Amino acid sequence: MGESGTDMSGHAPVGRRWRIRPLRRLVRVFLSVMLLCLAIVVGGFLYFAETVASMQPPDDPKADAIVVLTGGFQRIDQAIELLDKGVGQRLLISGVHPTTSSTQIRKFTQSSSSLFECCIDIGYDALDTIGNANETAKWISDHGYRHVLVVTNNYHMPRSLLELRRSDRKTDFISYPVVNSDLKSRNWLSEPMVMKTMLSEYMKYSLATLRDLTGTGWSTGLRQDSARQASLD
Both 186 and 74 in a single domain? Predict the structure, then answer.
């Protein structure tokens, strides 16, 4: 046997080969699992992106009421326009910052004061999408609605519906996506900002799905609960 630890034929001793083989198998299994996980993540993202890109608002929506999740005045404009057309009896604007008054929203959207006074509710308690869902569920319960139109951006719609249906399994939530840009016909994969938004939303949607499957209880996403917990801490 030579100084290198090999026999006269140049091969490693049998005992050493037996030690190397399990390590190689372990490495192969690890790499296979990693590739499988990567394929699942990439495939899931492409499916999510295709779903979002294909979303279109219904031609003739009808509902008992409308809820719009804040995040931009374009969403609110669209929701108020739907309310004005009689698509729903009442509108909830969920997740409004406490410093924003209904008068400010009315001026920004150039809406009539009579419409705001009679048929629009402002929700100040939601801090995030989970909070939107819980705030909306309480509002629906208070009014006894059964069919509610959900207005939010197309990329935000899958997660919004997931959280809403998790908070309220009795209500029929109808999707009304606000399409800011045509993702179906443009090469948005080459646009960094759009790609970043889609990836971020996909990650949040994946976490929300995992939470839904495992039944993990996170924060309610409500301002009053967050303040109560902070005071206890």
Answer: yes
- Residue 4 forms part of a structural domain: yes
Condensed to tens digits (0 to 9), the pLDDT of residues 160-174 reads 999 999 999 999 999
Q: Which of 99, 105, 119 is nearest to 75 (CA)?
A: 105
Nearest by Cα to 131 from 205, 206, 68, 219: 219
Residues contacting residue 112 through CB under 8 Å, at least 6 positions apart: 106
pLDDT in tens, 113-144: 899 999 999 999 999 999 999 999 999 999 99
Together in a domain, 24 and 78 = no
Nearest to 163 by CA among 212, 198, 224, 201: 212
Task: Measure the CA angle with vertex 51, ends 47 and 52; round to 5°.
Answer: 120
C-alpha span between 142 and 160 (Å, rounded): 20
101 and 125 both lie in a single domain: yes
Q: Which CATH number goes with the domain that contains 203?
A: 3.40.50
